[in-house]
Write a structure and sequence with these properties.
five-stranded mixed β-sheet; about 20% helix
């Protein structure tokens, strides 16, 4: 190997070594960060009225599912009716479905907290995310709401406009 080629190879290796720290991942959100979710199932005059199936989840900036926060369904056969969630998460991860599924809920206001962890139990990185809520009723309507979020070290509160099958939703991201 000639001297010029050896010099180029050494220079390339040095550039790669020096640029590696620049490509490091973002810092995780603070360990004491959490997001409180207030979620309403609205009263809908319908006969017969069926309780809605609900999926609430977070996706990262690349539109990859990060965490399924809530999943309310009666029977597994109805999971695929939550079309947006099902296409992204449900059909691929049976263990997750079993771990997060709970019963459907009646009309009312509900509160729950997302701890800032992904589905594998790791703290998510600071950055852009999207909150999703999907609600569908048998013999009824279907609604999906989306809200962009910037999770970092600054608290915020967002009121999301209701949809037909989803009432008021309030997201409160706080650093305790």
């Amino acid at each position: 190997m000639n001297l010029a080629l050896k010099t180029v190879l050494k220079s390339s290796a040095l550039v790669a070594a020096l640029s590696a720290p620049l490509m490091a991942q973002a810092a995780p959100i603070p360990t004491n960060a959490q997001m409180d979710v207030e979620f309403e199932i609205p009263y809908i005059k319908a006969s017969p009225y069926a309780r809605p199936y609900v999926a609430i989840w977070i996706e990262d900036a690349d539109r990859k599912p990060v965490r399924t926060i809530e999943l309310w369904v009666g029977k597994d056969e109805w999971l695929k009716d939550l079309r947006s969630w099902w296409r992204k998460v449900g059909r691929y991860d049976r263990e997750l479905v079993d771990a997060v599924t709970s019963a459907t809920r009646t009309v009312g206001e509900y509160r729950f907290t997302w701890d800032g962890l992904d589905d594998s139990g790791q703290r998510v990185e600071q950055g852009e995310y999207t909150f999703y809520a999907e609600s569908v009723r048998e013999h009824g309507g279907r609604s999906v709401i989306r809200q962009k979020l910037n999770l970092a070290d600054k608290a915020f509160k967002i009121d999301i406009k209701p949809a037909v099958e989803i009432g008021n939703v309030v997201l409160t991201y706080k650093i305790k």
